[in-house]
Specification:
Two copies of one chain form a homodimer. By secondary structure, chain A is of the alpha/beta class. The first copy, chain A, has 15 helices and 29 strands. In chain A, strands 1, 2, 3, 4, 5, 14, 15, 16 and 17 form a nine-stranded mixed beta sheet that branches. The radius of gyration of chain A is 25 Å and the shape is globular.
Chain lengths: 568, 568
């Protein structure tokens, strides 16, 4: 029998939100008793850990996040996340589902990890409709029904399409929500509803989808919580006014902290603990921040067996030598030490099916494929172009005259980059183009198959050689993110599994992504506070502004195709 | 489509714990939108209720209670409870289970009621073991398994036997708890654990049984909550020190209010609302008292669809003209008015199986059956007697010499009453005796088949004529509670269904019980602050002190039989 005593730690008590000097007895993976002091002679079979001076906190629980945002596998995610004390996550695998459909979700779920990874059902795959983007997989009612029978699935992942959800018509998302309610009446239904309020918000919540993790304002926090919504507050949502409204109104029970997306290079530095510390830096008490990273997320997900250091709960916890700086001494999962400065328990690495490594079904790109033909006798043509915003993923539509030569648009030296999207699932060989202003300001190209949410092959550059070099490099690698300058690959992160994740150790992947980020910024002069995310969301048609899929430029708000030639 | 607007009420917002002037739109039984004001012209199909000056509160949710404590059927319970605004209860039907086993539970569950009545699985039927008391039914593993497949069952009812629960041995209650965890991993397991603390309490909680509704002290409240227990605070537990510890420590989320037992005469005056008002009179804010009678009990029972006035929740609510005095104007269930001063929606009355009305399987009692034989040649014998405590259900054991005449104990004129327990399920015709001091002080007898938990026929009196008259009257009625003085029935409440509940209107039953209470006090001189409960628990062997079953006197704490003749 596996018995431990964590002796005389500063133990977080969830119910009074205080740290108290206590000793904690653990047996077979569960907390058994918390006491002022034990007579250690009574526990001669137990391993005694002297925790004097250490802080003992429940393992962190991150209930809104995407493993694919870290471009990694569940196994590597577990390995890295445990270092910071995250012991449970609820992942929405909608990226791998866009690539491989339910097969992708199954492969993720079949990864045995030390961290407990639960799953949400991706509710929007594809993000819009098959007419507007080609994806590798689709999640329809049959897939949802199968997933509802899986115990590892504990919620419906973020429902994005407000209009379809509250429509009077019979829509797919309404059918999916009904299916969930019918099969699992009390399962949480997670939402994504920025910028809606009043009757629209009430209708959204009344549908049963009653959580949101998007950007908030003090007003939206108040309105959403007081109408029964549970808020999952991610790092970017932590601004002083928002923290103030949460604390002033004592909304303690009705929100949690979450990460949503943690890029590989940022993942080297932390995970949910970073969001927690940011909240504290903005005025949340450390006790409330821990509560919101352990107890309330567990309650939301009906994981009643964890998030607390109390008898009968799963013994997931972190010992910290500094609370303010979150200095992790060791991490325990199911009552077993799985990480310390000198030790990390080995994860079982999963081999994915062979086809997962051969998912970019494209021949090499050549110059002819990049010709932007236009049917005109004029020497100029008015073109719709995409303007990139330097601090958000929103874009603008602009118009611009471009010269025409031999039936081709002569876009070079016009102050724009050419962006192309190549359908890569072998379904239709679509190629679509857009001209982009405001992103790349130097000469070169960037290419990626990690392109939300359809993950077709995206490339953007100022000259054909670099465009071809970058795109073909990604095809060679069968996935990744790279920068080419002067026909030379300056930085590259290979993502060979489904073209979106890598099984490389996180140190290696994080370093690669850091280099890509640097190359985008320095070599391409890409003007954005998160260049990698900016480019990777120029492909996302569910975004309200204009984006590019293999079907062309799509205006997310109206779901209209914007023609390349203005006025067509 | 059924549409209502409750216009301009003082609406309780659960999330900020404030009343706010709002209008509430209801559609098809659910709250749809809460707004400062609606343009009523937009809602020409809706029925508009002018609620200006009224208080709007979610329907009360009572999660620890026994319908049989009100000696009534689910249907009548619903009818009466709705008048006070209770719209949901979770009933532990362990009394009807003691009489009829699972068949009794099924009959209760099959009653269609306007109030939502959910059920717990009675975990201790019989309360001790079949060797110490004969019951009509037994709830074993098979019955538990069947009940776990029923959607109306939402928790395991109060687990009482601490020793068996934490035993190293294989015990029935451990097997039942395992079965629950295996079949329904997150189902709440309810407990009954007075006066345990430290390692014992930790072991109790660690078993997964993590709620308690018994009497508390400020210390036990603190220890139990801070070890992860959810407390269900019943009326008698509301004392100033307890309310203070709940409020001072901001334990808002970790307890609720409940009734446990509401006697028929008390039920005429109120239900959970009375507990709520008592809490307020002792210092709880009205907002917190409502929170603890609506939201926290719903959360505990994972009834996420209610307890709150917010979009998407079931429209169960009360309109009050006075909050402080809980003056009910009207009550709505599923968005429909079901009670007001001038209207009450009719309940569907259920006919129970014929056998439910023929459950006292006893021939008439006669004088010979009351002879207390003793095998001695002495003229005196030392007897163990039960001393009744005037303010609790605990008893004491005393010893007393009694004369012996013709082999019979001559107990009359010795300052004691004779108490007899007749096995009434036709299983073994057991008769057991005890002598009782401190209860009846005048001449006469009381008899009842409502006798916790085995519900055999109990009778106690000072002379044989009244004992026989009272007991035979209950046999004639096939159940009830009555008082006989001078061979005449002074007061009687018939309980013909299983001998423990009545289908009579609550006014009638409440009046009958009030008369029995009065007769016990005035005619029998029964010294107790709740004489009806006192006598009805003199049969309860699970109580730690000495009680009488058909098997004899039982000491609950040690589960030993106490012989009538001392030293035997």
């Amino acid at each position: 029998m596996n018995k431990w005593i964590i002796n005389q730690a500063n133990v977080f008590n969830t119910y009074n939100k205080r740290f108290e000097k206590k000793s904690v007895y653990i047996e077979n993976g569960y907390f058994k008793q918390i006491s002022d002091n034990f007579d250690l002679l009574d526990f001669h079979n137990a391993k005694i850990i002297d925790a004097d001076g250490l802080w003992m906190v429940p393992g962190l629980v991150d209930i809104h996040m995407h493993i694919e945002s870290s471009m990694t596998t569940p196994t590597r995610f577990s390995e890295q996340g445990l270092k910071f004390g995250t012991t449970t996550v609820v992942a929405d695998p909608h990226e791998i589902a866009n690539v491989f459909g339910k097969k992708g979700i199954d492969a993720f779920m079949d990864s045995e990890t030390i961290m407990d990874i639960y799953y949400g059902i991706p509710s929007s795959v594809p993000s819009t409709i098959p007419e507007l983007e080609t994806t590798g997989g689709i999640i329809g009612e049959n897939e949802v029904l199968e997933l509802l029978h899986d115990k590892r699935v504990i919620c419906l992942g973020e429902v994005m399409n407000f209009k379809d959800l509250v429509s009077q018509e019979d829509t797919l998302i309404k059918r999916i929500v009904s299916l969930c309610k019918q099969q699992r009446p009390s399962m949480p239904l997670e939402g994504h509803c920025p910028k809606i309020s009043g009757a629209d918000l009430a209708a959204f919540i009344a549908s049963g989808v009653n959580a949101d993790h998007t950007m908030q304002s003090p007003e939206s926090i108040k309105e959403k919580i007081e109408n029964g919504m549970f808020l999952e507050i991610q790092g970017k949502c932590l601004i002083p006014e928002n923290v103030k409204v949460l604390t002033d109104n004592k909304y303690d029970e009705y929100y949690c902290l979450c990460t949503d997306d943690t890029m590989p290079d940022h993942f080297l530095e932390g995970q949910l603990n970073k969001v927690l510390l940011k909240a504290v830096s903005l005025g949340l008490s450390i006790e409330q921040a821990i509560y919101a990273s352990t107890y309330t997320p567990s309650m939301r997900m009906q994981l009643f067996d964890r998030g607390v250091i109390a008898p009968g709960k799963i013994a997931d916890f972190v010992l910290l030598s500094s609370l303010d700086e979150w200095k992790v001494e060791s991490v325990y999962k199911n009552g077993e030490e799985v990480y310390s400065s000198s030790y990390q328990k080995k994860e079982k690495m999963l081999e994915y099916p062979q086809e997962f490594y051969k998912s970019i079904l494209l021949d090499k790109i050549n110059k002819e494929m990049l010709e932007v033909r236009v049917d005109t006798d004029e020497s100029e043509v008015l073109v719709n172009i995409i303007e990139v915003n330097s601090s958000s993923t929103f874009t603008n539509i602009a118009k611009m005259k471009m010269p025409v030569k031999d039936g081709l648009i002569d876009w070079k030296n016009q102050g724009v980059a050419l962006m192309a999207c190549f359908e890569r699932y072998g379904k239709n060989n679509n190629i679509a183009f857009a001209f982009v202003k405001g992103a790349i300001t130097k000469d070169g190209a960037v290419s990626s198959s990690w392109a939300h949410d359809h993950h077709n092959l995206m490339v953007m550059g100022t000259n054909e050689d670099d465009i071809i070099n970058a795109a073909n490099h990604i095809i060679d690698l069968q996935g990744g993110y790279c920068v080419s300058v002067n026909n030379e690959i300056r930085a590259c992160a290979p993502l060979p599994i489904g073209g979106i994740v890598s099984h490389a150790p996180m140190e290696e992947l994080g370093k690669d992504i850091k280099e890509v980020r640097k190359a985008m910024s320095e070599d391409l002069g890409y003007i954005h506070n998160n260049a990698i995310m900016s480019f990777a969301t120029l492909s996302l048609p569910v975004s309200p502004t204009v984006k590019l899929t293999d079907k062309g430029m799509i205006i997310g708000k109206t779901l209209e195709v914007l023609p390349l030639i203005a006025g067509e």
